[in-house]
Design brief:
By secondary structure, the protein is mainly alpha-helical. The chain has 14 helices and no strands. 80% of the residues lie in helices and 0% in strands.
Amino acid sequence: MTKNIKTAIQTVVFLTLGIVLFYYAVGSEPIGDEIKNANIFWIGVSMLCGILSHLARALRWNLLLQPMGYKASPWASFHAVILGYLVNMVLPRVGEITRPAVLSKVENIPFNKLVGTVVVERVVDLLITLLIAVVIFFIQFQIIADFFSSLFTDLNTQNVIIYAGIAVVLIIGLFVVYKQRNWFYNLPIIGKFQSFIEGLLDGMKTVFSLQQKGLFIFYSIFIWVMYFFMPFFIFYALEGTAHLGVSAGLTVLLFGTAAMIVPIPGGVGTFEFMVPAALALYQITPLIGKSYAIITHAIQFMVILGVGAFSIIYFIIKNQQLKKHHVESDSE
């Protein structure tokens, strides 16, 4: 089985899973009226934040090229970023290869060098995500504690048996892992995890060796501030979520980010499943939560599709210019 066939099968499987999750999450809720009455102004502000986050990502990417002696125009990097997201909407993770491939083509930068910079970017984003998770845990500790304690309220015999069974399995599993720790350490997945941790450390070393470390950190923070504001401003677009504050916005950001990590095209289904679950922690009804998730997710698609159309045109024109330049160079 070739790699392309495997990719196609995985895409179909995960897309099917996403559609099932989407149907399960949204169901037959009458969300049409909520979406129809959404405030267009705040939706527009949210879309602007999305565009600014992508522009900041392009500018941050260019900073990673400087130590290697390469330079790319901000617009070329911006459109490459958008095209990467556009491909990810159909083929998850393939966009991470598309982005450096596009920039390599239009700016004549070695592809392998660009792939390395994308890896560093992902390392930084992962660390920021983990930091956000820790911050949310401390800020929202009481809400999280109440959520988990609610799982144990109104216990019946069946639930007690299930929880006890899970606890026994976990204890046995930990005991087996401890006894067989030498075998466990030699597992391929453990080696990959060690390589992953080493990659994180190497990525951080690369960041600290940059000439413009302060600017890189600024862009990184700005990207995630815009990521936060995108769903946060949608709170004001719906009457049922207008009262929510920063802590709720951080929780939605975390749940939404986790939903997009799952290799389902565009996060379809997982986003609509996890974001309402996050809002439920703040006593937001399923109808409002699902309406909010649909609007927020649709905005992300609209930004990528809308700007992506211009990015495709930009790439076609740039490619034609490069071909013309090569023909003129060969004729001299």
